[in-house]
Amino acid sequence: MALHDLLPGNAINHPLLTILAIPTILLLARSIYRAIFHPISHIPGPLVPKLTSLWLYYHAYIGDEASTIHKLHEQYGPYVRVSPNEVDISDAEAIAPIYVTRGGFTKAPCYANFDIDGHKTIFSTTDMDYRKPRATAVVSMFSTKSIRENEAAIYGCVDRMVSRMQEEAKTGRPVNILNIARSLAVDAVSTHLFQENYNATAEKGNRLSVSAFVDAFVAVGRFFYLPNTAFTCLEWALEKLVPDEHTATSMEVVDKFVDNLVSSTPKGATNYPGRLMAIGLERSEVKAQCKDLIFAGTDSTGMNLATICRQLALNSDKYETLRTELLTNAQAGESRQDAQSLPYLSAVVKEALRISMANPTRLPHIVPPAGLTLSNITIPPGTIVGISAYSLHFNPTVFPSPHSFIPERWLPDQVTEEMGKSFFAFGAGSRACIARNLAMTELYWATERIVEGDVLNGARTPGGKEEKVEIYEWFNSSVKGEKIELVWEG
C-alpha cells in the first residue's frame, strides 16, 4: 500500500496537509508498535507510559515517581512497564540478578547526569574498567578497620554536633534537625576521608554553607531519566535564565574548600585525594570525586539521622527503651559492647533507614544480551530495569504497617528472611554505596551520644503534629521546605 492510499483525497493536493499527515501516521504507527508489538509489550502497565517516556519524565520532575509507581505495582503486580523500554520491579528476588550476580547489570546511561564538572565519578560512571582503579584506590578507607582507627576524630565530630543541638534546643525556637544532621555528615566525611574538617557544626546560620551545593545536586534527580545531551542543554539554560545567587555562593564555598584540600595534599598522602592522585588522576578529576563525596555523604546520612531524631521524639516509649539499653551498656565497664552490637539501637537505626526514603527511586540498569527471566517473566536484552527502596520498604506483606516506625520488627527473634532480602537502603552488589560502612557508623555513634546525653528529652514536633515528612521523590529525596523541625518544651 502506497502512502497516498493512506492520506485523505484532498491531502494529496495540499502540501501542508501532507506534511502534517505524514508525522501523524508515523506517530500512530510507533504507538501501535510500542503498545502491541514491542518486545516488552507483555509487561503490564497503563497505556501512556507504554507509548512515551514523557510520563516518567513528568513524575520524576514533580517528585512523586516512587509513590506513583508503587501504586501501579499494587494494581498490576511486581513487574510494571513505566516507559517504552523500562520496567520497574518490586520483587526482592530480582535484586541478585540485577545488582549482585557477576557484578550485576550495567548502569543505565542516565547516570551520566550526575557527572561533576565534566568528569565521571565513582558513582556516575557506567564503565566498570573506569571505576575499578578509582574504587580500589580508596575502598580501604571505608573499611571497619580504617573507621575504627579514626574513632576518636569521628566521635569528636559527633560530640560537637550534639553540643550544637543542645545549644539550639535551649533557644525555645524550632530547631531544624535536618540542618544539624547534615553538619555532622559533612564533618565526618571531611574529617575521616579528607583528614581536614569542614567544621560545619560550628556554623551558626539557619542553613549550612554546604546545603545549597548539596541541594543543587539533589535537584538533578528531577531530570534523572533525560538523555544526557538534553539534560546538559537544560542545565545550561537554567543556569543562564534562572540564576540562583545562594546556590552560586554555596558552590563557590565548596569549590574553595576542595581547591585548598587538593592543592595542599602532598605527594604520597594517604587521604582520599592523595590516593586518587597516586594512581595518576588529574587534579580536576580528583576535585570532582571529592565534591561527589561531599554531596552524597552529606545528603543521605543527614536525612537518615534527622529521621532517627524525629521518630524518637515522636515515640517516647521507644526513646526510653533505647536509652535504658544504652545507659545499661555504658555502665557495664569492661563488658561494654560496641554500639553496633546493641540489638535495640541496631533496630532503631535499621527502621529509620527503612522509612526515611533518603534514596526512594529506582536504580536503573540495562538487561544484558542473555536477557532476564524471573517468575516466568522474560525481559529482553537492552531493556532498562530497576528496583526502588520505596516499593520494597513499604511492602505491607513484608513490613506490616509499613509507614509506622516499629524498631521491634528488627529485633533478632522478629526478623524474617523476606525482611532481610527487601532491605535496600544502600543498594546491593558491587555498585552499592561505597560509603555505607561510614554512614552506618555515623548513625550508630550519633544516636548513641544523643540518647545517652538525653538530648531529645522534651523534644516534640512543632504544634505536636505527627504528619509524615513530605518529600520530593527524586533519586536523592528532597524535604519539602528543607526543614525537619523539633522544638523543646521548657
Automatic annotation (TrEMBL):
The keyword Iron applies. It comes from the Eukaryota. Signal peptide: none annotated. Heme binds at residue 433. PROSITE patterns: CYTOCHROME_P450. Pfam families: p450. This is Cytochrome P450.
